[in-house]
Model the fold of this input.
Amino acid sequence: MSPSEVAVTSTAVEFELGQEALAGRRIPKALDHFYRAQCAGHDSDACASARWDCWMLLGDFERAWMESDSITSRASVDPHRLWDGADFEGKRVIIRCLHGFGDAIQFIRYARLIRSSAVSLTVETHAELVSLLSNAPYIDRVVSWADGSSKHFTGWNQQIEVMELPQAFRTTLRTVPSDVPYLKVSAEAIERSNRLLGEAPTRVGLLWGSGDWNPARSVPVYEFAPIAGTPGISFFSFQRGPRRADLSVLREHGPVHDTAEHSPDISDTAADLMNMDLLITVDTMAAHLAGALGKEVWLMLPFEADWRWMLDKSSTPWYPTMTLFRQSSPGDWRDVLRDISARLGARAAMSAG
Done:
């Protein structure tokens, strides 16, 4: 092996060691490896991006934005970057929601900040979110590429992707726009949902399966099922997709109302959430939706939780009504479920007393 090949191999090893440390949430060690890898000649953007994850997990948003700035300064081509760095004052702005439903719901909170100085604000989003976001304050128009309504829309002179908004406003832990609710549901929709859900003293929503792209976020239903047997609580499933079939397992422990039977759209789900006292869920769209509506949420997180949930904390600045429950080791939900079961039992006893 030539000296140059040895050097390339060593930089790759440093970067891989950084990734291993990051996965193990040994963040100082990960940062050290990523810096070493870059100094040894590994791709600067890849190293900066990896350090970005580290800083966000640590809650040091300022340093994360410095990593973003360094990537921009190298004029690297980022196919996901839409924002040109200019401000929004006096502009006709369009926010494009090109990531997942949960991402769009979480970061659409910045609409108020944009609209305070922009002439108009349009949101381009998934067809499934059009109805929900059309009720959001500060948004003038909602269009979608899916139904063609955005195809010929040219009434903008500044664009930004929804996940670029925290960087655009140089968000820190102290300046996260945390006022909730920032999404609205009509009184008529809430009343319709209330009738369909039926009378119940304490309503708790359940959601155990996340998307297939990250199975680590999902809880096996046999582990989750005992929660549904908590006395004094009326349970409501918010599960959609293939994992909805797991509902039969939950029902072995007690009755569970299936909201999917009458709430096909996300706007319907929002109305159902407004009628819940609590949502217990894995990391998926419904968690963001409930948080954006200002509803109480108990969020179950895998060991390698996403950067937005940071490390070790049981609360999050993004959603003041949310409590975080974290795995202490990869794949092990036992402590999380014991904690939730105990808290839910205590809650039911207090309500009964």
